[in-house]
Amino acid sequence: MWIQDLREVCEMSYDDREQGQSGVEKMRLDWIKAHSLGEVDESLFQGLERRAESLLNADDSEWSLILNNENFWKAGWGSQVES
Fold first, then answer.
1. Is the pTM of this model over 0.85?
2. How far is CA 36 from CA 31, 32, 42, 45, 73, in A?
């Protein structure tokens, strides 16, 4: 649910990166709080944090590339697990 909600916030601001990044920052505060209360497990929390870092550090061209990358939104994206 968190990743889907994050994606929706970003896609609503597809053409306005700064507004989208503001939405990411607001959501980030929510999942940090939920994690501290034990409502978000560690693996999900780490995945959300990895995505937030990429989204918050993106420039205009990177923003649209990230939002269009289906793999970015899949569970396990960016994990340190090697196959």
1. yes
2. 8, 6, 10, 10, 23
